[in-house]
């Protein structure tokens, strides 16, 4: 087993230890000096920086050519956090996210709710056109991981919602591990050391299971709003391993689309990139 995995677990445990003792300190006197309580934070911060540097070194050490696959969606969508604008696209190389992309659906019959400064603070997932959109296999492959038991939460696309996400929820999810960040997710083995991950799936929407062999274009699941997500959207990335905690990102290009830039709207006809 890679040494990175237990180190990431230790990192989360150190933060958990700090949070637990901080909560206890309001109720009881802890049997050690005040400064001792900050040692887990110091250790967690140092370990986190080390893990980030290691992830960056691995991502930059052996760059791979972009792998061409079909788009994971059909219809009209727009891109967010795209590797066409910067890498790492999500601000970190960890969890195999170097070349990850987020896309959200743009449906003329059901406008996507915009960002709200104060009100409404939250919206239902059903208010967004991406929620429930089918997600398709980008190539022939084998399902190596699939889970969809986590709930779809309310949106975080208001100023109070974003502040709650950044200051409270994101930290709690980080302590919970990668599955709490990605939410419901699926990993597809495409062969040749390339794996595709779809994150933030809708609860109960899986149409496949681990071990299933799927053809390009087959529906795998539905778009949801689980995990560390501000609104229903598709998080897609290619990796060089099945576990995002130990994998490095692999660049991609979508057949017929390329890599859409931030804010770019693109449309995928049903047949684009898939067998007839």
Fold and architecture overview:
It is a single chain. This protein is an alpha+beta fold and 276 residues long. A hairpin with a 2-residue loop joins strand 6 and strand 7. Strands 2, 3, 5, 6, 7, 8, 10, 11 and 13 form a 9-stranded antiparallel beta sheet that branches. The radius of gyration is 20 Å and the shape is globular. It folds into 2 domains: 4-61; 67-268, Distorted Sandwich (Glucose Permease (Domain IIA)). The protein contains 4 helices and 13 strands. The longest helix has 23 residues, at 39-61. The model has no long low-confidence stretch (mean pLDDT 89).
Short description:
This protein is an alpha+beta fold. 24% of the residues lie in helices and 21% in strands. It contains four helices and 13 strands.
Regions with little confidence, pLDDT below 50 for 5+ residues: none
The radius of gyration over CA amounts to: 20 Å
Total number of domains: 2
What class, by secondary structure content? alpha+beta
Mean pLDDT: 89
Layout of helices and strands:
Blueprint: H1 4-24, H2 39-61, E1 67-69, E2 75-80, E3 101-105, E4 134-136, E5 141-147, H3 159-176, H4 178-182, E6 185-191, E7 194-199, E8 213-214, E9 219-222, E10 234-239, E11 249-250, E12 252-254, E13 265-268
Parallel strand pairs: 1-12
Antiparallel strand pairs: 2-3, 2-13, 3-10, 4-9, 5-6, 5-8, 6-7, 7-10, 10-11
Helix pairs in contact: 1-2
Main traits of this protein?
single chain, 276 residues, alpha+beta, Glucose Permease (Domain IIA), 2 domains, 9-stranded antiparallel β-sheet, two-stranded parallel ribbon, 4 helices, 13 strands
């Amino acid at each position: 087993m890679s040494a990175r995995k237990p180190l990431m677990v230790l990192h989360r445990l150190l933060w958990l230890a700090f949070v637990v003792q901080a909560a206890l300190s309001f109720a009881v006197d802890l049997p050690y000096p005040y400064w001792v309580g900050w040692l887990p934070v110091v250790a967690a911060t140092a370990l986190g920086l080390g893990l980030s540097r290691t992830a960056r070194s691995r991502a930059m050490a052996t760059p791979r050519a972009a792998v061409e696959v079909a788009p994971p969606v059909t219809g009209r969508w727009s891109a967010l956090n795209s590797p066409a604008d910067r890498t790492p696209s999500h601000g970190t190389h960890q969890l195999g996210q170097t070349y990850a992309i987020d896309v959200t659906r743009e449906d003329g019959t059901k406008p996507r709710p915009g960002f709200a400064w104060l009100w409404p603070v939250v919206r239902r997932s059903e208010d967004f056109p991406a929620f429930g959109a089918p997600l398709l296999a980008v190539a022939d492959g084998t399902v190596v991981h699939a889970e969809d038991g986590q709930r779809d939460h309310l949106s975080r696309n208001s100023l109070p919602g974003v502040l709650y996400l950044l200051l409270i929820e994101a930290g709690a999810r980080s302590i919970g591990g990668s599955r709490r960040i990605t939410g419901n997710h699926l990993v597809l083995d495409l062969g040749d050391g390339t794996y595709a991950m779809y994150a933030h799936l809708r609860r109960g929407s899986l149409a496949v299971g681990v071990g299933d062999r799927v053809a390009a274009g087959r529906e795998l699941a539905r778009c949801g709003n689980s995990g560390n997500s501000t609104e229903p959207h598709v998080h897609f990335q290619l990796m060089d391993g099945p576990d995002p905690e130990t994998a490095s990102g692999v660049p991609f290009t979508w057949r017929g689309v390329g890599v859409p830039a931030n804010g770019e709207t693109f449309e995928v006809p049903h047949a684009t990139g898939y067998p007839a």
